[in-house]
């Protein structure tokens, strides 16, 4: 029997993983600031999905928390983290548009992750939205060993610039709302990517996915992409 079939048949179900998830509130250093985060982790998870939040929010009861739970139900561990701190959210609104700075903060999360042995065998995916998409592209450009897959959810990847878009190294799915007014710009950025890529449009919604069921649809598409492209490192080693 092929090794992959053995691995798949013995893998725990998503429901079993949900029952084992351990939630830990964290603060991650990013230069002079600390980013609040919530890790939901199980050693049996299919992978770790980083979710970059463009605001300071409730990690247990918010739209992004709901999105994270949908990924957990699909068998993934999640790390939901803020790209801003409380001062920036209330007093410095321009920070959320500072794509280079936000990209550095995403890299700081990667650096933190590299020093967490319990997470070392988990392949990593990233979900970004809004201006965080541009920041995510800048953070991973020309860094092939950082991520296994990226999802841009209703965001603005074009804010990264032409060169970073062309250097995205991992499979990338772009999920858009069919009524998003920024679709032409998103499509232009998508066309510049040379990586394995995929375009998905959700009917009847805009870039915020506020319509009933739209955010769940985006989560389902994200989970499908990550299941396709995330492979545990220990499995990769066994198959070689």
| Residue-averaged pLDDT | 89
* Number of extended strands: 8
CATH superfamily: Alpha/Beta hydrolase fold, catalytic domain
Shape: globular
In the predicted model, the low-confidence regions spanning at least 5 consecutive residues are 1-10, 235-240
Number of domains: 1
Classified by CATH, the class is Alpha Beta
Order of strands in the sheet with most strands: 1-2-4-3-5-6-7-8
CATH topology: Rossmann fold
Q: What would you report as the Rg, rounded to the nearest angstrom? A: 17 Å
Write the CATH architecture name.
Answer: 3-Layer(aba) Sandwich
Helix content: 25-40%
Please work out how many helical segments DSSP would assign: 10
Secondary structure category = alpha/beta
Task: Give the oligomeric state of the chains in this entry, treating copies of one chain as homo and distinct chains as hetero.
Answer: single chain
Task: Report how far apart the termini are.
Answer: 16 Å
Strand content: 15-25%
**H-E string:** HHEEEHEHHEHEHEHEHH
Biggest β-sheet strands, sense, barrel: 8 strands, mixed
